[in-house]
Amino acid sequence: MVKDLRQGTGAGFLECKKMLVETDGDMERAAEMLYERGMAKAAKKVGRDANDGLVGYYIHPGSRVAGLVEVNCETDFVARTPQFQEFVHDMAMHVVAAKPRFLSIEDIPGDVLEREKAEYRKEAVDSGKPERILDRIVEGKLLKFYETTCLLEQPFIKDDDKTVAALLSEMIAALGENIVLRRFVRFEVGE
């Protein structure tokens, strides 16, 4: 059972054994608890320096669109793991497919944000929406704007039930190191 739980979660042998003892052999509950604790561990690792890593790329067939990403981790040991390398490649592929403009919400310039808010407010007023709900409409449209333009807020292309930020947290928990999506660029012929 420990082996099965370990394969399913990627957690260590002793952690799996401990969770199975705590849950009286309930595999599903043990996996759930490992996931929760892994996310807690991931949150603790976020502040640590990540100065190693990889630059990954993806060139779409036809060579008309490409993406480059820099993903950092704490050690070259983790950077060489197949799991980390696959994650970096997936992030480059995601950049090509999802066309993000910014890395995170904090990276959106103030003037762009104000312009978007003004546009959303004008749309709501022009469509006859009552004044009392304008702020909620603008906030809802801003959330959609973040989801389409900020890499960390976008639904991951291979599993749209997760955001890129959630996938990043899972990687931190699985690999046991802080991982940072540092920067990206997307190239398209004629753009």
Question: Can you describe this structure?
Answer:
This protein has helices spanning 2-9, 13-22, 27-45, 76-79, 82-98, 110-126, 134-149, 164-175; strands spanning 52-59, 65-73, 155-156, 159-163, 180-188. The chain has 191 residues and is of the alpha+beta class. It has 3 domains: 2-45, Ubiquitin-associated (UBA) domain (Helicase, Ruva Protein, domain 3, Orthogonal Bundle); 52-103 and 150-188, 2-Layer Sandwich (Tetrahydropterin Synthase, Chain A), CATH 3.30.479; 109-148, GTP Cyclohydrolase I, Chain A, domain 1 (Orthogonal Bundle). α3 packs across α8 and α6 crosses α7. The protein is globular. The model has no long low-confidence stretch (mean pLDDT 87).
Q: SSE layout and pairings?
A:
Elements (H helix, E strand, L loop, with lengths): L1 H8 L3 H10 L4 H19 L6 E8 L5 E9 L2 H4 L2 H17 L11 H17 L7 H16 L5 E2 L2 E5 H12 L4 E9 L3
Antiparallel strand pairs: 1-2, 2-5, 3-4
CATH superfamily of the largest domain: Elongation factor Ts, dimerisation domain
Mean pLDDT: 87
| Spatial sequence of strands, sheet with the most strands | 1-2-5
**Which H/E pattern describes the elements?**
HHHEEHHHHEEHE
